[in-house]
Structure formats: C-alpha cells, structure tokens
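User: Working on a comparison across species. This one is TonB family protein from Sphingomonas kyeonggiensis. Can you predict its structure so I can line it up against the others?
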Amino acid sequence: MDMARPVAILALASGKWGKRSMVLGLVMALAMQAAPAVQDTPPPSKARKAKTRVISWQTDDDYPADALRKHQAGTVKYRMTIDATGKAIACHVTGSSGYSALDEKTCPLIVSNSRYEPARDDAGKDIASDLNGTFTWSIPGGAQTPNPVSALASDPLGLTIGLQAVPKSYANPALLRLVYAGEQPKACAVEIGTGNAKLDAIACDQAKAQVGPLKVDDAKLAQPDSRTVEVQFEATK
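Assistant: Here's the predicted structure for TonB family protein from Sphingomonas kyeonggiensis:
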C-alpha cells in the first residue's frame, strides 16, 4: 500500500480537525507521492592519460655522427606503448624527420632517458595505453628553427592496394618508413603493421616500387633520405 494514502484517510475519518486539517493532510500525501527518488551522485572520475617524467633528453654525444656531419636536423613523431607499471614496452616512428639516422636513434634514446606514469581508468586503476609525442633534433650550436623537410617527410603519402579479398586479420593500414640510397629505396621499416605479415610485405614491395624519394630545392637544407608512407588495402569489385 502507498505510504501517502493512510494520511489522507485518517484526516477524513476523524472529522474533528476541520477542513483545513483535511486539506493539509491531502497536500502532505500528494507531496509524498510526488517527491522524486534520491539518486546517488557518481564519484568523480580518476582517469588520466599516461605522463612522461623526463630524466634527461639529448646531449651533444647523443647526436648521430653521420647526421651531424651532414647537418641533418628535424622532428620525429613517435608512438610509445606504456604498460600498467609505467614501463615502455614498444616505440614506433609515426612520422619521419626526413633523415633515417635521426629516426632510428629517437625511440632508443627516449626509452632509455625517460620514465612514465601509467594511464588510469575511471576507478583509478593503472592501465596500459599509447602515448604520442614528438622529438626534435637540433644541431648543437645551430639554429633552433623547424626544418621544413620534416613536415614533408612526416606527412604520410597514401597508397591504396586492391585485392580480390581482404583477409579478416587485416586490422588497419600499414604505416611504413622508406629509406633511400640516392634515387632507390634500400629499406622499408614497418612501424605499424596491418595485423597480417603477408600484407605488410606486400605493402613494402608496392611502396618501394611506386614511391620515390623526397627532394627539396633549398641548397641550405640536407637532402632527405627517409619518408613516411601509409598503405591501405581494399577489396576490388
């Protein structure tokens, strides 16, 4: 039985409190019926992204000797996977600086010279996550201005390859880093794979066959020998 209903019945049955009391009883009953249910307020979220705690960054001794001799400088984009303990368990170059020597030195340098605070979920539990960042190589004693070569090299050139049927294991486009010796590609690094090793190999073969090296007209800039390429697969009709 509704708890508000007996209040109105008692007021009507007694009769000695008068009309005002009867009305008051009915108003109280209606107020009790209309009172909204009290809802618990959810606790504030304790979620956070992973954080980098830098121990030390680049010193003059860290600069790749060959890159320094050729006056190569630029910015490398990377993606770091941090586990629930704050340990870096994977690092990939997601945007080339334009110079392979700088690209290849970046991840090992960052992993060894920094520590991480893991991400947390809403409950405050430490979880694994990805952390995107950039690292800029500046020639010691040189200008700190951005190198336009990096903007060109890190912007992925897109290729699409048609297949009669795309394997179910295909998860995402392949992100590649092509390295050149003069006009010819000499290496293809799969930075982020498709989820299928055979497709990754096809992506590299097609990229090396179809994509030429970057060239810059500015004589003051070192010619790039590396660039980023994204290859996606789709089913042909």
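For your comparison, note: The first helix runs from residue 5 to 14.

User: Helpful, thanks.
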